[in-house]
Amino acid sequence: MYRVLDILITMKNKSGIFITFTALFTAIICVGCFMRIPLGPIPIVLQNMLCILSAVLLGGFAGALPTLLFLLVGLIGFPVYSGGTSGIAVWLGPTGGFLPGYLLGALVAGLIARKPCVEEKKISGRFVLRVSLAVVAGLVILYFPGVIGFSFWATGAGKVPADKTALSYAMAVCVLPYIPGDIIKAAIAIPVALKLRPVVAQYLYNRTDSTEQQNEV
Fold first, then answer.
1. What confidence score (pLDDT) does residue 206 get?
2. Which fold has domain 2-205?
3. Which one of 44, 50, 70, 96 counts the least CB within 10 Å of its CB?
4. 8 Å CB contact between 200 and 57
């Protein structure tokens, strides 16, 4: 009986800690809306890196939750999108495709990274490779919806130059100028994730739980 009560209390405590981490990461992503550098119709932002980093730290499907909450908060009117914007108008604008891209990138990054494990304190080559792949894959994949969304927007708004296709114009405007910056973001996010994942695991899972979940996800 006491063992059952201990398990229930432990589950409740872990749920509370998980909610706290999720809320914290969501808040960090939202605050990131003020960190932007205007560059044509698509600004340089930190929110893409924050979404991917949060996903890698939490790992698994749960890694996408902070990004999902951030998108919902902005959709209902809170000014948490880039530059303090919000609402459906942002989704329909030139940067609108990047918003679902953030969620897709976070989901992929979390699944590749898998749930954190306390044993990750002992950094191995395999661990570094998995986290690096998760960060890079997340940052790359979020561009696909972004480019597609910008292509449709540019076509509808008559912004596509006569000598370019909508796709080539989108690549030139949305992707190529941002590659150096994303390399820097990945170089920052990877060591941060390597350092913090075992810390997150220490709070969310005990040694046995983290090992089992690491193998399952």
1. 58
2. Arp2/3 complex 21 kDa subunit ARPC3 (1.10.1760)
3. 44
4. yes
